[in-house]
Amino acid sequence: MEELKMYNSLSRQKEIFKPITPGYVGMYVCGPTVYSNVHLGNCRTFISFDIIYRYLKYLGYKVRYVRNITDAGHLEGDRDEGDDKFSKKARLEQLEPMEIVQKYTLGFHKVMELFNTLPPTIEPTATGHISEQIEMIKHILANGYAYEVNGTVYFDVEKYNQEKPYGILTNRKLEDLLEGTRELGGQDEKRGRLDFALWIKAKPEHLMQWPSPWGMGFPGWHIECSAMSCKYLGKQFDIHGGGMDLAATHHTNEIAQSEACYHEKPVNYWIHTNMLTVNGARMSKTAGNGFLPHQLFTGGHPLLDKAYSPMTVRFFMLQTHYRSTLDFSNEALQAAEKGLKRLWDAYEILENLPAGNEIKEAMDPELDKRCIDLLDEFDASMNDDFNTARVLAAMFELVPVINSLKSGQIALNSLSTGTLEQLRKKFSIYLTDVFGLKNDKEADSGRLEGVLQLLIQIRKEARAKKDFATSDKIRNELQQQGIVLKDEKDGSVSWSAV
RNA sequence: GGUCCUGUGGCCGAGUGGCUAGGCAGAGCUCUGCAAAAGCUCCCACAGCGGUUCGAAUCCGCUCGGGACCUCCA
């Protein structure tokens, strides 16, 4: 099989993936800040990495997947009088900071579950790793890349840059970065304009603060990921991911901290997912154009005509490559909903296909080969930087074949039994295991199935008597309930939920 | 201002220099008690202008448009 290639932000090109330890992958993904609800843009990133995680597992790798929960306070702005995000919100809502954290962590997990993402293997919290962060800061100080001013510790970017290129991840020179930075009035604590805080001195009113060698305070934003990734994945690990918006600042600083601490390149492959946009503009907390997952599932958003299921949204995201922006619109979602249904229908046909006789030789070798080629494209496309859109295109090309297999337009023995089996298996594995899609219909079946079979039977009897008034009534009323009946060619009746 | 990305048919979106992306919508036909599905066929796009090449949506240049990052944000 071809090798897996992934786009590395560090080199700005696709590279063949070689794990540090054969057979094992260490992957760290920057998780959510739990002081408010996650919006759909956040979800896109986590869904993208869920696919990557699933695919790595599909390839047989044993993956340690670490995704953090940021629950420690950060400065609001670039000023040290800025409030701790968590305590600020806590005061507004009269809650303890950890109550906020708990509330939104649970909400986040619920949403991730609805989207059917697999939980990471380790989900560490920043507040649970304060001592690790302090240790790391001590190390960086000892190595001479940081300095303390009045209880706050800053990272010395210019000093670091003398030895290692600071802007390596986003291909920027320090001079250019300095030029782009605005003048910070009243901020004379920092020696360099690009210097960032590793540890921040807390004011007495800060609710979240911890003792440290520099007095009471809390960690800077970037240090948690460096400390936790090192703890669970080592000083050097395979993949670090996150949204593209994190590359320039957060990830750049992570690299600098880790290098300054351990003198080792922390990450081999940096993977960045692109943004979700609304009317061409990035969805973000501050822009106020964020969709909450909940609004989507209920249709409760001014820009939406109707509700869309989590799986429709997941599928919608799969149709676009993870490094392209994805624009959110009603029409696109509707198209996704229909497309996904077409895929599920094909999936069901495959699952219910009769076994048939053992056929070694395909009666239609040309078609047989085409099917094999399309199936091979699944892995080939995924190996080419996780191109889910191209896998789906290949799947859709197989759908007419599958449908024809059912209707008899293509005889079962046109394909060899081996091909048929591979078709069934691969279609199913990709849909459910790799892409993580769940059949909504299967979820609410059970009792409903029994009731429907009764109605279908009554309708069948009516039709046999040419009592179309009754048969149409059953079908029409069911449709009102969102259930569509189909009279198949062989006289059977199937149903699907809209 | 700096660093980049991007501009594909009605809509969404893949795309390796030559070979069909795909989905949705639309049109026609077939099937069907009627539907719905499904099958078949059609709709042959690549911002503009130049250049490289036997050949470019794909490479290069310019022009115009859109966006991101440089400040908390997946």
Largest sheet: 4 strands, parallel
| Large-scale geometry | elongated
Average pLDDT figure: 88
Per CATH, the superfamily of the largest domain is: HUPs
Instruction: Kindly report the spatial arrangement of strands forming the biggest sheet.
Output: 4-3-9-10
Enumerate how many helices there are, as a single number: 17
Which strand-content bin applies to the residues? Answer: 5-15%
The helix content, as a percent range, equals 40-55%
CATH architecture designation of the largest domain:
3-Layer(aba) Sandwich
What name is given to the CATH topology of the largest domain?
A: Rossmann fold
Question: Which structural category fits the helices and strands?
Answer: alpha/beta
* CA-based gyration radius: 27 Å
Given as residue ranges, the uncertain stretches (5+ residues, pLDDT < 50) are: 75-82
How many domains, as an integer? 3
CATH class of the largest domain: Alpha Beta
Number of DSSP-assigned strands: 15
Distance from first to last alpha carbon? 39 Å
Protein architecture, described:
The chain folds into three domains: 18-273, 3-Layer(aba) Sandwich (Rossmann fold); 281-441, Isoleucyl-tRNA Synthetase, Domain 1 (Orthogonal Bundle), CATH 1.10.730.10; 444-497, no CATH class. 46% of the residues lie in helices and 14% in strands. The protein has 17 helices and 15 strands. The protein has a four-stranded parallel sheet with strand order 4-3-9-10, sandwiched between helices. A hairpin with a 2-residue loop joins strand 11 (276-278) and strand 12 (281-282). It is elongated and about 90 Å long. Mean pLDDT is 88; it is low at 75-82. The chain binds one RNA strand of 74 nucleotides through helix 1, helix 6, strand 9, helix 8 and strand 12.
